[in-house]
Amino acid sequence: MIIYGSSISPFVRKVLVALNEKGIRYEHGPVAPQAEDADFRAASPMGKIPAIDHDGFRLADSSAILDYIEHLSPQPALIPADARGAARARWFDKFGEVELDRKLSVVFTERFLKPRLFKVPGDEALAQQALDTHLPPLFDYLESQISGPFLVGGAFGIGDIAVAAPFHNLRLAQVEVDAARWPKLAGWVALTLDRPAFVTAIAAPAW
Ligand SMILES: N[C@@H](CCC(=O)N[C@@H](CS)C(=O)NCC(=O)O)C(=O)O
């Protein structure tokens, strides 16, 4: 299986972590979003990362790819078998993208991508507004949902992958979750990003 996309993307990271957890071998092509690479564009109609090519089966979107991987290699299960567990896991998968990453990526863009990668100044007011106003309600919600090492049921799964993945980008922006204000969230983020599957995905080439 070929995985297209820079490991700096939380969505690419989700796929790499799932493959690492399941012990599936893959080849990684760390392309940037909208790259002209013809093989990548054949797999990703909108030019977004990640995308995969598995023996000619091409697919984009991290959630769709995680579903594919789960069917391909069901063990260890990353999606609970029961209706409520599966539904909550998908809720957190969506929450990770639509709520969390959408706000968190403002901090990542203004404090990391612009100054470090694009060599232009970031908008510090935007980053601070996200940290002061937009992210705290999401962190409050996550703090209320954490009662053990995993977000859903008794096992690590796609909920943990999708919610933890963007937090590494917060670290790249030199921001840590305030452990005095959100102790459970800070502990869960540290524990999850320390899993070997995350450590390997984070170390994968960005370009
Ligand atoms: N729903 C998609 C989102 C993927 C996505 O937005 N990736 C970003 C990079 S982090 C991208 O490729 N953006 C380029 C664009 O929107 O043109 C997924 O889960 O894979």
From TrEMBL:
Top-level taxon of the source organism: Bacteria
InterPro entries: Glutathione-S-Trfase_C-like, Glutathione-S-Trfase_C_sf, Glutathione_S-Trfase, Glutathione_S-Trfase_N, GST_Omega/HSP26, Thioredoxin-like_sf
Domain GST C-terminal residues, every copy: 82-207
Domain GST N-terminal positions: 1-77
SUPFAM superfamilies membership: GST C-terminal domain-like, Thioredoxin-like
Protein's recorded name: Glutathione S-transferase family protein
